[in-house]
Design goal:
By secondary structure, the chain is α/β, with parallel strands linked by helices. The chain folds into two domains: about 130 residues, Aspartate Aminotransferase, domain 1 (Alpha-Beta Complex), CATH 3.90.1150; about 240 residues, Aspartate Aminotransferase, domain 2. It is about 40% helix and about 15% strand. It has 14 helices and 19 strands. It has a seven-stranded mixed sheet with strand order 4-12-11-10-9-5-6, sandwiched between helices. The chain has a four-stranded antiparallel sheet with strand order 13-14-17-16. Strands 1-15 form a two-stranded parallel ribbon. Strand 10, helix 8 and strand 11 form a beta-alpha-beta unit. The two termini are about 20 Å apart. The structure holds pyridoxal-5'-phosphate. Pyridoxal-5'-phosphate (PLP) binds next to helix 4.
Length: about 425
């Protein structure tokens, strides 16, 4: 039995090692981060705040959590930080509890326009009893329509404006939304799950500096940390946020991965700017190359992307499902994605695919490699070569990118430490 599991893990690692990972919500951690997972912290509890725990034995855990808080404050210039949410959705749930009452109305970006399910009725927002109204969305700009939002907000009078999304190609109008919110006495929350690493690297505008009251996030997408979450807020909301996290929605906050998060934060402080700049350069180059090859990459008018992501309308290639499967056959891993014009009912075969280049950037790829990736994709999707042959070429291509960059020591990306 155990050897069976070992074999599966090994096979998975081998698959990743020889593929081109382009899922926009993923990344790879350094060995320094992963070593923390094996520490004794992973066996412990530390309910409560630093210095005010409910159990004994937390002396060194307190030191780790204090480092996590201090480094996060420094990185994002934040007034208040809570590093205890164990994931992005849990951070959102806590923020909804802190900022709203059941029956309140929130503005969210709809799922086809890129919003995350946790901002919608079927997930965290709905489970808090919130009524969800979607922002008017400008598909050409792939962004919120501020004028139409202003008008709608006058009628609807929402209590909370949720910004940030999962398909996110643009800076979002935080300042403008804050202005609308202020007139209504409403809060603004920015879910930075996708772009946290780009904010840390100073290539994506910091929503807290633009007027957001709260920032929620996961820590493992463009921010190359362990899988967990965090909340930044203005000082005056600190108590409500902390209470909503614990005892609200978190008990154990996964202390081994908290230690790993500290390492990732140090890496971001040191290497974040170089990394984030390269991420956006890579995304743009991949978009341009695919566009030149004839693909319907969204957003020609704004240079395709201001983030790590690009989106492609693949309806004329059989839809997102067929395209993602075909690319998987050659070892290129992307996800099918709803596009703004899609109904949520066609989530199984939506119009598009979404691509993120943050992980391949962390593996050291640059513009030149983006062009190679576009060519591999084109060969697979236009049947220019036998798929098995392309798979072999992808494996060969990946051989040069086996270590994690933007860390204090370069280490094998898949070794089990
Ligand atoms: C990924 C994502 C989340 C969820 O984060 P988890 O850590 O998977 O819970 C929340 N919000 C947005 C916008 C996301 O993209």
């Amino acid at each position: 039995m155990y050897s069976e599991l070992q074999k599966i893990i090994k096979e998975h690692n081998e698959m990743m090692r020889s593929s081109i990972p382009l899922i926009a919500s993923e990344n790879i951690t350094s060995t320094l981060v992963r070593k923390c997972y094996l520490s004794d912290f992973g066996h412990r509890y530390a309910e409560g705040k630093v210095g005010e725990r409910y159990y004994a034995g937390c002396k060194f855990i307190d030191e780790v959590e204090k480092m996590a808080i201090d480094l996060t404050k420094k990185l994002f210039d934040a007034e208040h930080v809570n590093v205890q949410p164990i994931s992005g959705v849990v951070a959102n749930l806590a923020a909804f509890f802190a900022l709203t009452e059941p029956e309140d109305i929130i503005f969210s970006i709809s799922v086809p326009c890129g919003g995350h399910i946790s901002h919608d009725k079927m997930s965290a927002a709905g489970y808090r009893g919130l009524k969800v109204v979607y922002y008017p969305f400008d598909v050409e700009e792939m962004n919120i329509d501020v004028d139409a939002t202003k008008k709608l907000a006058k009628d609807v009078k929402p209590n909370l404006f949720v910004l940030g999304s999962s398909l996110i190609l643009r800076h979002q109008p935080v300042r403008e939304i804050k202005e609308i919110a202020e007139n209504l006495d409403a809060y603004v929350m920015f879910d930075a799950s996708h772009v946290l690493g780009l904010i840390a690297g100073r290539v994506y505008r910091n929503p807290m500096k633009e007027g957001a009251d709260v920032l929620t996030s996961s820590t493992h997408k463009t921010f190359f940390g362990p899988q967990r979450g965090l909340i930044l807020s203005k000082k005056e909301l600190a108590k409500r946020i902390d209470k909503a996290v614990f005892p609200g929605v978190v008990s154990n906050h996964h202390l081994h991965s908290l230690a790993g998060y500290v390492v990732a934060t140090m890496e971001m402080l040191e290497f974040g700017e170089a990394y984030a700049k390269q991420v956006v350069r890579n995304a743009r180059r991949l978009a341009e190359k695919l566009y030149d090859l004839g693909y319907k990459v969204l957003g020609e008018k704004f240079g395709f992307t201001e983030t790590h992501q690009i989106a492609i309308d693949v309806r004329d290639l059989g839809g997102g499902d067929r395209v993602a499967r075909r690319l998987e056959e050659v070892g290129i891993i992307v996800n099918k994605n709803l596009m703004p014009w899609d109904s949520v009912d066609i989530a199984q075969n939506p119009s598009g695919i979404r691509i993120g280049v943050q992980e391949v950037t962390r593996l050291g790829m640059k513009e030149e490699e983006m062009e190679r990736i576009a060519e591999f994709m084109d060969m697979a999707l236009k049947d220019r070569k036998d798929l098995k042959e392309i798979r072999k070429e992808v494996k060969e291509f990946r051989k040069d990118f086996q270590t994690v960059k933007y860390s204090f020591e370069e280490s094998d990306a898949y070794e089990i430490c």
